Amino acid sequence: MESMTGERMLTFLHSFDREKPAYLNELEQYSKETNVPIIRPQMQSLLRLLITWGRPMRILEVGTAIGFSALLMSEYAPLGCRITTIEKYEKRIPLARENFEKAGKADCITLLEGDAAEILASMKEDGAYDFVFMDAAKGQYINFLPDILRLLSPTGLLVSDNILQDGELIESKYAVIRRNRTIHNRMREYLYQLTHCEGLETTILPVADGVALSAKRG
To answer: What is the mean pLDDT of residues 177-204?
Structure first.
């Protein structure tokens, strides 16, 4: 029987996806041609659902890349929603800004340039964000977490993408190539913190490259 995550099954499921705006399709095609990573189709579908259902008015994204996910969220967020996104890689920042301008979303999406750890630590808006999308350097998730939880509203949702490292996370660290072991260890620690924190309820889903959904308790 075909695996529930096999290519044929995924193709079948994606055949039901609602068409995205043309400019997002163009960005997706650009990412394929230039090998710039963006969120995978399964993650896109989940993100669209979560944004539509949760109706967040303030969204924080860590990891802008070329702006695809911020633009996708803006399409399904309620009118008046504000999105703040953080990016460190200098070569991608001008392209992201250009994409926001072209889509007419520059007024509702604010791009902060620089190291996410420093920017997050400097943000004073405790509990201000209804929705946080984590999609940056995987080895830094654990370092970002304290400030992310501080900035997340009591009823907010934290979505952490790409947590399974293309399946490497289930392997022993000794089965992982040496240069990836630090990320492997840190991601395991991050997932342990999310699932064992008394103040959080977390579920881990095998969607795309793995996603963790975390909500504050009480």
So the answer is: 83
Contact 97, 71 (CB under 8 A): no
175 pLDDT higher than 70: no
Alpha-helix residue ranges (DSSP H) falling in the chain: 7-14, 22-34, 41-54, 68-76, 93-102, 116-122, 141-151, 181-196
Separation of CA 43 from chain center: 9
Contact (Cβ atoms closer than 8 angstroms) between residue 64 and residue 85? yes
Q: Residue 2's pLDDT band (boundaries 50, 70, 90)?
A: very low
Residue that has been written with the tokens 């190539």 in this structure: 177
Measured distance CA(154)–CA(151) in Å, rounded: 9
| CA-to-CA separations, 13 to 9, 20, 59, 63, 84, in angstroms, rounded | 6, 15, 28, 27, 31
Q: What percentage of the chain has pLDDT greater than the value 70?
A: 89
- Average pLDDT for residues 6-13, to the nearest whole number? 79
Six-digit token string for 203: 């579920």
CA 141 to chain centre: 11
Residue 58, C-beta contacts closer than 8 angstroms, at least 6 positions apart: 81, 82, 84, 128, 129, 130, 131, 153
* Mean pLDDT score, 195-208: 93
Question: Tokens at residue 172, please?
Answer: 């022993």
Q: How far is it, in rounded angstroms, from Cα 206 to Cα 42?
A: 10
